[in-house]
Structures are given as structure tokens and as C-alpha cells.
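ARCHIVE CARD
Drawer: 12
Card no.: 0347
Subject: one protein chain, sequence and derived structure
Cross-reference: see card 0346
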Amino acid sequence: MTASSTGPGFLLLEDGTLFLGRIRRPDSRLAGRVTGAVPTAAEVVFSTNMTGYQEMFTDPSFGGQIVVMTAPQIGNYGINAEDPESSRPQIAGVVVRELSATYSNWRATGDLAGWLADAEVPILQGIDTRRLTRHLRSAGVMRGVIGAGSSPSAGDLAALEACPSMEGLDLVSRVSTRDRYSWGDPRAGRHVVAYDFGIKRNTLRLFADHGCRVTVVPAATPAGEVLAEQPDGVFLSNGPGDPDAIVYAPDTVRALATSGTPVFGICLGHQVIGLAFGGSTLKLPFGHRGGNHPVREMSSGRVLITSQNHGFAVEGDSSGVRNASELDVTHINLNDGTIEGLRHRELPVFGVQYHPEAAPGPHDAVPHFDEFLRAIEARKAHQQPP
């Protein structure tokens, strides 16, 4: 992996707030190229996860974002070949308080700094991430630029100015698979078609563990193509960007749902279900990103500790989804009261805003996969002749 040292670097937010630190630079033999493509401009978000940085950085839901890690030290257990949620890092940049100079783990195959350098993802360290996080919580997430040096240049300012807002941005078309592919045992008794809005590998692993074979299809696949395969169920994956910008998805999902096919959505998939039945979404001030978000199940009062990664939410509250009378709210966020789960009143369709496939955990919500399989089996039993 790429050898590197550090030099002056900064993060400039669009409101003019400047954070000075150190940016990773390559070994001098590499002609002085700064590690990662700088300046790098993107929406700046924060995550409260203490571990799981490799899974986070390869999660397509983080596509095109600069991620601030609130944990004080990152990188101490290295990286490995088994944990990535996609084939490469999806983030635009990383901001940390301290990047561990060494790593130790029996599964590790390399260091975090070298792995990100090989992917040309800049790492800014030595930042007061507590102050930065408090600023984003009070002012809201915003665009920012990572650059080299002690002050922004004209080029850095131009990159920040040219950076698009996350609102109205379709990032799904950038991360979705171009070709359909299969996952799991081809002899499995259940067949699930998964729409790839930015799907994570652990979702596919869990479906395989639950006795399903999965056909993963591009995000814009028409409903007719999927229904022609007579799937037992349809899964709508997580993904990045503004759900309102994925204009091709709601009508497709409504057609799938009204066919009677069980539909299960996670994160962006959950939001698309809301849109498909007349709901709307809104951008949250600073989103939900981390592994410790409390969610209440409305029917039982039980509280789940969940993993989350999203900047948008379905509009409504515990009393219902705004303008979507066919949907019931099943879960709410105990921190801010936003909708975390919904279900159709008549059709076998439901979604959750959080990540039951979280790797690493928490694993409180994994039983949602069993819930989906029960809907599949119920439909199969109904279709069988008496």
C-alpha cells in the first residue's frame, strides 16, 4: 500500500468555518502527490460509530460525503478483505482526531491510511472533531472542502462553490449495479429480487443465511421485468442521495406492491415506499449516522438500539405518514420523533429507516428479515390450491 507522511491541511465549511489539521501525503518518492484527490468538496457529515470504519467507508449510502468520525482514534485494528460492504471506499474524504500509526488485529491485512491512499481518499487528521461535530449539530450539515496547506486557495474555494447540494441529487444512479447478478445458493427455495439503490454485501449475506437466492437488479429496472420472474419477494436496498431525486422508483415500487408481492425496504428503500404511496420526505438538520440510535416499536413499546446512516426521512410522526393514508407508522426515533418504520395497511409491504443488516451491530433489528420471510411464506400458502 502507499507509504505516506503528513503535511498541513484544512477543512473549510461553506459557512466560512475553518479547521486546521494535517493531511496525509505520500512518500517523497511519489513526486509529492497529495494522498487523495484534493481539493475534495462534498457534504460534511458525522458518525458516532466507535468501530466498523471499514464497513462505513465502503457503504454506498456514504457515497460522495466527507465523513467526520467522532471516536477519538481511528484505524487501530487495520483493514481486511472480509468486511467491506462494496468493492471500494465510497466516501469522498475522512476527518479524524487521531489516525492510529499502528494497527493490531489477527484478521488485518493492512493499514487504514494506506488502503484509503490507494483509493485516493484524503484523510485529514489532528482536527478537533468534538468541536466540528457540535458545529454541524447546531448549524446543520453543509458542504465543505478538504485541501492541502494552511489556508484555502482560489482553487479550493472554486471547488467548494461548484459542489452540488445533496438536496435534489440522484446518487443512486452512480452507485447502482449496471448489470444484474445473483447471490446465494441457486438451489435455495426462496427467490428474492433486490433493487440495488446502493446495496450492502451484508444484506446479501443475511438473505443467503435465511435460505434465499437473490437476483440483484439495477435501480431503474421496470416493475414488469421483475414481476415476469415471479419472485417470492422484492427487496429495496439502502442508498445515498435525495430520495425525491430518484423519480423512476416510486411508480415502480407501487406497481410491485399492488401486485401482491411482498416488499421489504431498508433506509432509502423505506423512503421510496413512503413516496410510492403519496408520502413525502424532508432533509434532516444533521441526519442519523451511528450505531446507537434508540427506536421504539409502536405495537409493543419495545426499544431497539439501531444502526443508522441517512440524511433524509419520511415526513410525519407517530400519528401517521403525511399524505399517505394507506401506510401505518410502526417505529419512531426516540431522539427526535421521526418515522423509523412503516407498513401498508392491506398489502404485504413494510420498510424500516434503520439498518437491520448492520455490520458490525447492533443486531436488535435482524428479525425483520424473518418478518419478510413470513410474508413470503404466507403468500405462498395463499397461492397454493386447496
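Annotation on reverse: The first helix runs from residue 53 to 57. The chain has two domains: 4-162, 172-383.
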